[in-house]
Structures are given as structure tokens and as C-alpha cells.
Amino acid sequence: MTQFFKYLFLILAISMFSCTSKSKTLSIKIDDTLLRATSQYTYLMDDLPKGRFPKTYHEKDDKLETSGSEWWCSGFYPGTLIYLDEAQQTNTFTKEIKRVLGNLEKEQFNTSTHDLGFMMFCSFGNANRLNPTPEYAQILMNSAKSLISRFDETVGCIKSWDSSDDSYLVIIDNMMNLELLFWASEYSGDKTYYDIAVTHANTTLNNHFRGDNSSYHVINYDKTTGDVRNKKTAQGYADESAWARGQAWGLYGYTVMYRATKEQKYLDQAIAIANFIVNHPNLPEDKVPYWDFNDANIPNALRDSSAGAIIASALLELNGFVDAGLKATYFHTAEKIIETLTTDEYIAKEGSNGGFLLKHGVGHLPQKSEVDVPLSYGDYYLIEAMLRYKNKL
Predict the structure, then answer these.
(1) H or E element: which one contains 364?
(2) What is the 3-state secondary structure (H, E, C) of 3-45?
(3) 69: which residues sit within 8 A by CB, 6+ positions away?
(4) 46 carries an active-site annotation
(5) Which of 67, 134, 185, 301 has a beta carbon 3.0–4.6 Å from 193's, enabling a disulfide?
(6) What pLDDT was estimated at residue 5?
(7) Cα dihedral angle (79, 170, 263, 387), rounded to 10 degrees?
(8) Per-residue pLDDT, 7
(9) 231 DSSP β-pair partners
(10) In the chain, what are the domain boundaries?
(11) Does 115 qualify as catalytic in the annotation?
């Protein structure tokens, strides 16, 4: 028996050393990648027209594509700058953060979009987290008020896309905007925001998911009755396919729901989505997903680095809420995604890629929009994932 336990101890020691060594190696790689990101965003900052926000870059035309502050991605640029200064413990982007937040500030009163969580919480939310001020808090409260103006009690959801007819369209992405409402409820003491977030999440839980826990992209509700009219996957391969970024939004969103409420059903749903992803036969060995899990062209289909980054970040948070077996699975899957995304295949060379960090994102392939390009949210969630990984260590 003594020899057996010595042998067992040796095996465990070797295993632990291997894991520790891998983590240290990846941690160093993350530090290098964060430095690259700082360099890239300094380049991007200098090239960005005043009053505009970066969307993507088209290498063929050497063209930086930008947007106004009303675009759903506008919060990712200042959010990324805030993360980078936080990671490096520097003030490299302080002036630029202040400038761009000033350009974004007016969107607190925008009631024409459901994306105020992306726009305002990724930006002003992070700014307020690190440096709470009454000004930031008021902007976030106004943003939350604008967001709940799109809630309909009969449907039980916040409307995502406005329509020219009587369609009431809700997309899985909208789960990502609920974190703003939880913050507003806690800050103000007004439970209205909390209740709307929970109602939206419950309606989505009932209607958006298939038996295998994959999700549709778009649900069209009857505003008069709240009944489901039809279910679509607009940005995916087919209506019944599992669009990768949609699965990522759902995973992240229900992980946040559990963090905010501690209700078991949200943890169960987050685990169900995570298990669909990590156990899917079409998930590549390097763990960066194809843009849609059901694309008939797999293994020759495009990867979506942005979906991979979101999944990694979500799994690292979910890792803190689950038991030992799942904890290890989720951690090592996220670790592998980050390991892949920080290789030369995905990380831009300095001074290239229009100043963006991450390559090979897929925005809306069916419309041939933003295909195999950098995406501002890909950078944001990769940097968030890397910071969460280092905090785990």
C-alpha cells in the first residue's frame, strides 16, 4: 500500500505541476497580448475620426469602418480602453476615455434601442466600477430608464428590434442588457428594474430554447396576446441551427442572471447552455467555435473568434458557481480558447488589422456583413476573459 500511495502522489504531483506550468505560460502570453492590445489601441486611437466609434477594419481596402454613438457597439471601444488601463495599472488612455465617453453620453436618453447595456454598461458601467461618481451613476440610471421603456407587460419582454408592422421581435442578445437593470435596481432601491429583468429572462427561458438547450436568435411575439408567432435564427446558418454567438450571449446572460438573483433555475440554464457548447461534436479541438455549430460546410466553415471570446469569459465566471467536476471542465475549456485566441493565427501583428487586436470575427454572414474581420466586441470580451483568467490564478 505504501508503494501505491507513493505512486499515486507522484502522479498527482506531476499532473499539478503540468497544470501550473501551463497556467504560468499562458499567463505570460496574456501579459504579452495585453501589451499588444495597448499598442494596437494607441494606433487605432490616433486613426479614429473625431466623434466616431470603431466597428471593424477591411484589410482588402485598408479601410477602418466606424459608426456614430447610436450603434450598438459604441460602448466596446471605451470599455476596452478602460480594461487596458486597469490591466496595466496605467493612465495611457485616460484622456481618450474621457473624450469618447463625452461623445457617448447622449445615448442615455436613446429609447430606440435595446442595446443600452452593451452601449452604456460596458463603458460607463466599467468607468463607474473603478471610479464611482454621481455623474456616472445618473447616466447609468437614465440609460436603465430608457431601456425599460421598451418593456411590454403582455409579452413579458423588452423589445429588441423595432418593426414596420406589428411584429414584436426579441433576440437572445438582449439577455446581455439586463445587467444594467440589476445595477440600477441595487443603486436606486427601485425593484422595478429587477422585476423587469427577471420577467424578460423568464420569458426568454420559456420560448427561446430548444430541447437540446441551443437557442433561436429571434422570437416574434404577438403583442396583443404574448403568444409566440414564429422562431428564427436571422444571423445563423438556418432557423433551426445553433448560431455560435447566440449561444454565447445566452450563456453569458444566464450566468449573470444567477449572479444577480441566486435563483437555481438560472444556474441550471447556464450549465445547460455551457454543456451544449463544450460537449458539441462540432466544437473544434482548439475550442474556438465555427460561426454556426450546424454549418453544413464544417470543417471548412469560418470560425468566429468573437463567439469564442464571449464563451471563454462566461465560462470563467460560471466556473465560480458550479461543483468540482464542471468547474474543471469550464476552466480548461476557457483556458484552451484563450490559449488559441492568443496565437499568431488570431492576434494581429503590431500596426496591422486597423488597430484591432483580434482577427477572424464573423458578424452577419447571411448578409455578407463583417465576415472574417476584427470586431470591437471580440476585442472587448477577449480582454475581459484574459483578465478573468489571471484573477482565477
Answers:
(1) strand 361-364
(2) HHHHHHHHHHHHHHHHHHHHHHHHHHHHHHHHHHHHHHHHHHH
(3) 53, 103, 104, 106, 107, 119
(4) no
(5) 185
(6) 53
(7) -20
(8) 53
(9) 219
(10) 31-392
(11) yes
pLDDT computed for residue 65 by the predictor: 98
Residue of 85, 115, 295, 379 marked catalytic:
115
In sequence order, what are the residues at sequence separation of 6 or more whose Cβ sits closer than 8 angstroms to the Cβ of residue 122?
75, 76, 78, 79, 380
Active-site choice (32, 162, 165, 173): 173
Residues 347-368: tens digit of each pLDDT: 999 999 999 999 999 999 999 9
For residue 209, give the 3-state DSSP assignment: strand
What percent of the chain lies above the pLDDT cut of 90? 93
Separation in Å, CA 214 to CA 197, 289, 381: 21, 14, 21
3-state class of 281 per DSSP? Answer: coil
Question: Is the CB of residue 34 less than 8 Å from the CB of residue 84?
Answer: yes
How does strand 167-171 pair with strand 218-222? Answer: antiparallel
Q: What is the mean pLDDT of residues 283-303?
A: 98
Joined together, the cell numbers standing for residue 44 give: 487605432
| Arithmetic mean of pLDDT, 85-114 | 97
Q: Cell numbers of 144, please? A: 436603465
Short-list 71, 49, 33, 9, CA closest to 354: 49
Local structure of 232: helix, strand or coil: strand
The burial class, CB within 10 Å (0-12 / 13-18 / 19+), for 35 is middle
In CATH, 31-392 is 1.50.10.10: yes
User: What does the alpha-carbon distance between residue 325 and residue 327 come to, in Å, rounded to a whole number?
Assistant: 5
**What is the three-class DSSP state of 157?**
strand
**Residues sharing a CB contact under 8 Å with residue 7, sequence separation 6 or more, in sequence order:** none
d(CA 108, CA 345) in angstroms, rounded, equals: 38
Collapsing DSSP to helix, strand or coil, 118 comes out as helix
Q: How far is it, in rounded angstroms, from Cα 250 to Cα 172?
A: 6
What is the bridge-based pairing of β-strands 53-58 and 63-67? antiparallel
Bridge partners (DSSP) of residue 58 are: 63
Grid cell at residue 355: 488597430
